[in-house]
Amino acid sequence: MLNKNHHRLPATAGHPTSTLHQYKPPATHPILRRDSTVNFFSTTFLIFRPTTMPISGMVDRVAIGNVHEEVSHPGAIKAFVAEFISTLIFVFAGQGSGMAFTKITGGAPTSPAGLVAAALAHGFGLFVAVSVGANISGGHVNPAVTFGAFVGGNITLLRGIGYIVAQLLGSVVACFLLLFTTGGMTTAGFAVTAELSIWSAFVFEIVMTFGLVYTVYATAVDPKKGDIGTIAPLAIGLVVAANILAGGAFTGASMNPAVAFGPAVVSLDFGNHWIYWAGPLIGGGLAGIVYEFVFINRSHEAVPSSEY
Hints:
The chain is mainly alpha-helical. It is 54% helix and 5% strand. The chain has nine helices and four strands.
């Protein structure tokens, strides 16, 4: 298949092309469209390259993908399972820490100690969740991260939808497990503090998620990251912890639609739930666009025959 500039698009694994020009994204992320083995988060693994179909719009790199390669391929299924497990681990730890604090304090109002505890639990939990999923799915653990990767052309639409479904299911299952293991304690949904307007909370979530996804791009996606890639999971966990310290008292600092979705489903509390979808998705998408198209320079170039 040729794009509008008459360059050959990436070939499906096992079906190499024979033309001299082919779109060649840097091998820096487990969801980039190139067959190669790379070192990501200090872990060596295979990158799958799906058959893609460019969407007219920002760039040709944004693609829908092929159902076989992006949904039903064994590698894709493993990636979905990895996202499900990583999100389950993260939400179980984050929500569980809040429930434990409520039990210890007898349901007392949120205190500075509780905010710090929440920040640490989510930061450490995300550090682990990203690390354990990195060599299989990339360790997104967040629909906003997946959406940011999509608008930057680093994941196809079909693979991205699969990731998001897996993340939402992981969050829901984690919250039901907490409901059962704690003897029926409620998983608290996210809520906007009374002193804050809905639109202020909306912008708060946009800004915090922008910082998160920008960090993901800078430490994990950017081909110029060098050795900084080895600390990407830690940096991602730390920025989430810092944002919880900044915004936890105002919006709950979700930055992640999946994190908000699980508690809302289990508690049946969807008050202002749209904020925790729209804000993170907009923030993540903006970060992906800004970093990809301002700081990462990808181009069509001749690929040596040995690479296909």
